[in-house]
Amino acid sequence: xxxxxxxxxxxxxxxxxxxxxxxxxxxxxxxxxxxxxxxxxxxxxxxxxxxxxxxxxxxxxxxxxxxxxxxxxxxxxxxxxxxxxxxxxxxxxxxxxxxxxxxxxxxxxxxxxxxxxxxxxxxxxxxxxxxxxxxxxxxxxxxxxxxxxxxxxxxxxxxxxxxxxxxxxxxxxxxxxxxxxxxxxxxxxxxxxxxxxxxxxxxxxxxxxxxxxxxxxxxxxxxxxxxxxxxxxxxxxxxxxxxxxxxxxxxxxxxxxxxxxxxxxxxxxxxxxxxxxxxxxxxxxxxxxxxxxxxxxxxxxxxxxxxxxxxxxxxxxxxxxxxxxxxxxxxxxxxxxxxxxxxxxxxxxxxxxxxxxxxxxxxxxxxxxxxxxxxxxxxxxxxxxxxxxxxxxxxxxxxxxxxxxxxxxxxxxxxxxxxxxxxxxxxxx
Length: 429
Known about the structure:
Pfam families: UDPG_MGDP_dh, UDPG_MGDP_dh_C, UDPG_MGDP_dh_N. One of its GO terms (molecular function) is oxidoreductase activity, acting on the CH-OH group of donors, NAD or NADP as acceptor. Residues 316-416 form the UDP-glucose/GDP-mannose dehydrogenase C-terminal domain. This is Nucleotide sugar dehydrogenase. It comes from Pseudoduganella aquatica. α11 packs across α12. The protein has 429 residues and is an alpha/beta fold. It is elongated, with a radius of gyration of 24 Å. Helices cover 40% and strands 14% of the residues. The mean pLDDT is 97. α1 (16-24) links the parallel β1 and β2 (29-32). The chain folds into two domains: 7-196, NAD(P)-binding Rossmann-like Domain (Rossmann fold); 230-428, Rossmann fold, CATH 3.40.50. Strands 3-2-1-4-5-6-7-8 form an eight-stranded mixed sheet, with helices on both faces. Strands 10-9-11-12-13 form a five-stranded parallel sheet.
């Protein structure tokens, strides 16, 4: 592997920034993003998401970050790591990927390799991205440039399973390209690489990783719905079942974010394209998408059972991000809980110790409040168990509740015994 060859990473978010930093420790690297705000932060060795430390950014001595597309023109490898969301109808939204492909195509030099990391359905790299690269560059695929695909496996907020410690799936449009792409990633991923037989296989592998997880959580959520009807505690059932060696340790919960709740729709879209209507995958999506409404309804029912008049009541929702210990607000299902509670005439107050207040207001119209500014409420919905929230003494939690106030533990993460002993109704998913 020639370490003089230049790598460009297009898109410096949760996926792209760690890539750019690791490459920037080894070889000349260009980090490109349209956001001037991000570029300014990275130049100051600051990652607002906390995924990459200041020390790691400073160690990437060969990394240059920019928002000027012209800086991509000299790159030998261009790695595209932009979001692939879905629209309101749950259809793939390729807008960011198309935009990135246009930018790369206009600055693509002969002999370069373009590697896509964005999650897509099998075939999208060659069917959607390659024609754009050809059109914008005037170059011919497999003659003047090549493409590879290496799906991202970043788990936001996870400091144990990181870019360098997770086996990397790689692929290329021919054997020589696969060798180059494999060598490129082997230079930064200590866990090594797995060579997929084709770009489509690598695309499919990624999309089923998250589809499998989505379905496993959907099963737990459906079990939680059933056990709630029966009147038994889901966590106690799972703990008992978990004593068998081959019982998978999944838990019920909200499924949001930019991966698990989105990627299955890419696969079902492709299935429809080829004439197969998927049933199990979409059933799982329906279950998971309905859990926020269920949690809100259980909150209201618990309040009524405790003697609370719901209309005009107050509820403190703690945690807004899509997962714990991570500031990412994208596709957070907590926002759906808030909206559902408001539909009952509830006055909702929201606190999140790790989310950006400006982003919460922009994304969901939610004004975050400091913990000390939260009122005494008729219920607390502990939606996301950030470590800062779990560290709050139960006495302080109870102090934010009225005498008949209820405590709702969405992730079954809090010790409910002392809260219950203090006279408060409690419920967990």
